[in-house]
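Field guide to reading this record: the first block holds the primary sequence, the second block holds the structure written as discrete tokens, and the final block holds curator observations. Each block starts with its own label. This record concerns Capsular biosynthesis protein, catalogued under organism Pseudomonas rhizosphaerae.

BLOCK 1 — SEQUENCE
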Amino acid sequence: MKRTVFVVALFAVLLQGCVFSPGQHMTPEDAADEIGETGPVTVLPINAQTVAQHQSLYRPEPVPAALYGYKPGDYRIGAGDGLQITVWDHVELNSPTNQEPRAQGTQIVRNDGTVYYPFINSIQAEGKTVSELRNDLQRALSRYLTDTQVDVNVQNYASQRVVFSGSFKNAGPQVLNNVPLSLIEAVSRAGGDDGSGNLAGLILKRDGHEYLLDIDTLNRKDSKLNGIYLKNGDQLHLGNNRANKVYVLGEVNSPQVMTYGTSTFTLLEALGNAGGLAQETANAEAIYVIRGAQDRSKQPATVFYLNAKKPTAFLLARQFDLQASDVVFVGPSDITRWNRFISQLLPSATVVATGNALGQ
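BLOCK 2 — STRUCTURE
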């Protein structure tokens, strides 16, 4: 009699196995009904229309015209620069000690912006171009010399620089010279990012303003980053990607937390990095992206779902951009839930059956 009651009870539980099966699972209806502390949830399918609307909302900000509209002029001399000054046919000026010609050395611009030269003592150099200083020297020396011909070159550049900080491989100052330095060339000199950089989070500080730039858009045909040139005093800070995390959970081969340092990180990339769907356990019709709202008072949390029963659905996954803190969840198939329920139930059933046998 006891055995009969046990069998009936076991059969009744098995009939409800899908309802009480262990582990997490979700349907679009589940998400739509989720109203609690997080507020209402918007449920959207991942289709061509959703992808198009989604991409238009999260495109990177355009590069401000104030940046790509700046074009460097001629280099202007500053304190600390080393100048090479030559007066032709006057060896005594170029080599007043009758030793190594001064043309082989340099005249350092002093902190007050002046340089020393015979006959004229000091002359203002800071803020002038090479041509302007050459003309000033020639005009000043013509009071003492006839047929004066002067040549001026900057031999050591030191007064103008830009500073790199953050996740660059070679952070620190870079000196500017008479060749205009573009943003892209400067980033290349700094060695790019050290592996932890957020390429979509480059901050350019200039004249009291901060501009957020996305280096990752450089390969786009409409990118204007190539037209940005740096100027003295610019600061470039490359943030890290620690905040750029997505969580891939559920029936994938390698559940994990992923960080990314680019402006776009797609659902397909996330699934691929996680080793793809677990073929024996995953429900390809239950791929979800769970996105919390930044401001719950203005925007509800959103759950996107993808039916990838057909492989062509991964074309949509390749176009769907994830955001920081997104949770990608792949649900289990019905048979997986059933098997897990049975695997947990059978040990308990064995214990009950053993106890029943001993009781007899």
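BLOCK 3 — OBSERVATIONS
The radius of gyration is 35 Å.
Confidence is low (pLDDT under 50) at residues 10-19, 96-104.
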